[in-house]
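Lab notebook, design round three. We kept the backbone fixed and only want residue identities now. Task for the bench partner: fill in a sequence for the structure below.
Input structure tokens:
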């Protein structure tokens, strides 16, 4: 399975002749390989959405813009890696949300 980079222009979700795809992966193949229910996030769409938020806030605000989604909503390390790479921080309620437990 290939992972698109930030310059990839593929459609994150594609309905092609009844064969739904998320990026380059057929949903039926994902369900077969990983089982259901399955939580899938499009990296391309996530990056696209983050960039859209940053541009929209920057266009409407004269000061510095910092997009900070709640860590509880983005707790998966893979999501945090992508959000951090896009320059997005996180909002936490307490320091306990930042503690990594093995």
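Proposed sequence:
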């Amino acid at each position: 399975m290939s992972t698109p980079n930030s310059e990839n222009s593929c459609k994150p979700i594609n309905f092609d002749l009844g064969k739904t795809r998320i990026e380059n992966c057929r949903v039926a193949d994902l369900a077969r390989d990983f089982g259901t229910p399955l939580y899938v996030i499009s990296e391309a769409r996530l990056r696209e959405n983050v960039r859209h938020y940053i541009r929209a806030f920057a266009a409407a605000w004269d000061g510095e813009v910092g997009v900070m989604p709640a860590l509880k909503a983005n707790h998966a390390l893979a999501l945090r890696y992508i959000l951090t790479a896009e320059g997005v921080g996180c909002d936490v309620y307490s320091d306990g949300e930042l503690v990594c437990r093995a």
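Keep this in mind before ordering anything: Residues 1-9 have pLDDT under 50 and may be disordered.
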